[in-house]
Amino acid sequence: MKPRTAKFGIGQIVKHRKYAFRGIVYDVDPVFSNTEEWWESIPEDIRPRKDQPFYHLYAENDETEYVAYVSEQNLLADTSGDPVRHPQVDEMFVRARDGAYQVKPARMH
């Protein structure tokens, strides 16, 4: 398995290809890096390949905010320009005037 270059970057807003949720990327695994139980819990007919980037998202849908782990094949860029309301976003990111999210600089003590 040769890892591919990630299509999405930290701070990028993405949406799920099939399900009604979106989120902001806060970490990327070059290949699947979760438990076998988690992977097997996905119905086989829609189970993603493991040899692709997987994204950790601060995610949200119409009802709630949560953390999601999603394969690259199931994500699309979100071009809505809408902010992400997940409460942890402000802890890690700042939103620029153009609407893009950038990682907050590390604070020196």
Report on the structure:
- The radius of gyration is 14 Å and the shape is globular.
- The strands form two sheets. The chain has a five-stranded antiparallel sheet, with no helix packed on it. Strands 6-7 form a two-stranded antiparallel ribbon.
- The chain is 8% helix and 32% strand.
- It has helices at residues 36-40, 89-92; strands at residues 13-16, 22-29, 54-60, 65-71, 75-77, 93-95, 101-103.
- With 109 residues, it is mainly β.
- Strand 6 and strand 7 form a beta hairpin.
- The model has no long low-confidence stretch (mean pLDDT 92).
Secondary-structure element order, N to C? EEHEEEHEE
Terminal-residue CA separation: 42 Å
- What is the CATH level 1 assignment? Mainly Beta
Portion in beta strands = 25-35%
If helices are DSSP runs of H or I spanning 4 or more residues, what is the number of helices?
Answer: 2
Helical residue percent?
Answer: under 10%
CATH architectural name: Roll
What oligomeric assembly is this protein in?
Answer: single chain
Radius of gyration: 14 Å
Provide the low-confidence segments as ranges.
Answer: none
Mean pLDDT: 92
Number of domains: 1
Q: What order do the helices and strands come in, and which of them pair?
A:
Elements: E1 13-16, E2 22-29, H1 36-40, E3 54-60, E4 65-71, E5 75-77, H2 89-92, E6 93-95, E7 101-103
Antiparallel strand pairs: 1-2, 1-5, 2-3, 3-4, 6-7
What are the defining features of this structure?
SH3 type barrels, mainly beta, 8% helix, two-stranded antiparallel ribbon, 109 residues, 5-stranded antiparallel sheet, single chain, 2 helices
